[in-house]
Protein 1
Amino acid sequence: MSINIFALTWWLILIFNTFPKKYYFTNLDSSKYDSAIIVLTGGKGRIQKGINLYKNNHGSFLFISGVFHESELEIKQKIERQVFNHNCCVVYDKNATSTFENAIEVKNWLVENPEINNLILVSSYYHLPRSFIIFKNIIGEKRIFLYPAKYKIKMDSNIFFHVKLILTEYFKVIYTIVSLI
């Protein structure tokens, strides 16, 4: 029982500290030409954050993976308006329905793009730790950096929503770790 309390306490401290900063993307030492921005859809601001990173030349590709809340046409139009003539390097995958499937799609895409050495994962703050575990397990040989869609957590809005979200994600991480063993 005490180990469960310790594990939960550790997880809450880790996630409220928004995951160890050493994994966060600040600026890569290498050029943009060996980096790809991977956006895991499903939360607010993720696609826009990926577009901003791409427009600021932090990666040579923008890979958008997951189930889109918007239609594929709306997303393509949004990106075309913001990225202009860079559509050669924007890749869409709307088949993945889970983080595991996201990682498998990215791994398959990397076979065709072996020059990519760095991945910048864009997702929500609560989703990044589990995404990192899954991507590191499936795509082990690449460097993975994390970029949350939002850096600041607004706790004044609805603390119970965040606690519920974080607890749910905690149990998903435990399940992920157990299933990878």
Protein 2
Amino acid sequence: MTDGSAQEHDASRPLTRARWQRLTQWPLAAAAAIFLAAYSLEVLADLRGAANSVAEIAINVTWGMFVVDYVVQLATARRRGRWFMMHIPDLAAIALPVLRPLRLLRLVQLLRILQRTTGAAVRGRVTVYVVVTTGLLVYVAALAMLDVERHAPHATITSFGDALWWAVVTITTVGYGDMTPVTTAGRFIAVGVMIGGIALLGVVTATIASWIIEQVGRRDASSQAATRKEIEELTAEVRSLRDELRRTDGRVGAAAEQPDGSGS
């Protein structure tokens, strides 16, 4: 089959969700990167006029790509109701523009090390997700908070440094209270970061607990192996002693049965 006919055959196949994901994985990752760059530039540079319009166009175009991706995946799902309930975060990613950069996590799925099925690989996958998600969440939350707060009356978060500090202390559930949002949108963002911090703490705790359990299990297995080896060695020694006793008894019995030649 030639390359042209192979492409025609591939194009003639019905569109499935798995095939759609393979086709759009890299384009959507690139769209997420473009969105993050445009949104960062718009907020950090406080764009106005034509520059702001260009950034908004880029943001809206990438948002449209994610809307199309969500609709196609929902339409091609076998059990749409179940798929919808299991992909609420995907709906949030298109309903709340600030969450769209989290689609960059698709790139993490391409790492071969995360395809392993052992416990250590699962922990590695969780660790990577936690680190990447935390970094993105802190950065994007800081951008979003600065975007909605810096021009508000009586605002305490007026620079990116302030917003980044607020995001870090909030997601770690420290919450010094030295900087607090004064707008309704800012408070909604704060709630999301708080929930993310609680979830992050739970994942980290579970990962550490899993690692400790595995280490204890390995030590127990090593101890059991050493104990079995000692038992086997002792059993072998006991068998050797028994054989030696049998041989000794046999020699003693044979000597006792020999006639005494001294009286002849």
Protein 3
Amino acid sequence: MTNHYELLYLVSAAYPEEDLAAIKEKVKDLIKKFEGQITFEDSFGKKKLAYPVKKAFHGYYLLYEFDLEGEKLKDLNNNLKLANEILRHIVVSKKPQSAQQRAEKKMAAKAVQIAETQVVEDKEKDKGKIKLEDLDQRLDEILGGDII
């Protein structure tokens, strides 16, 4: 039975971007070797790692979605572990998504990011403002009481 999977893998930034295409092809060939069919691919680009992985501080994040028989997943996983170029990888089972669903999800994530940025900007603007009640209280403290 064919299942749908997502593979996220990390390639060391020690490899130049020109070599990245060859590494991508190697991973594609591995998936095809086990009769998998790639349905979607994406690259998140070069990112700083949260902690060093095999002495690497930066890496390229790459993603593939593919269909593969469940029995062959273990063999694919073992071959990915043996690939020297791949620092880390994870394969998870996933529901297939259409291109429209992906686009909607991406737009929703962007809208959330814009909203979060707006909230931060609003907080920064309000940071320097003083409330009227606070101002009245400070004036009373400075003046030492009521004014006649």
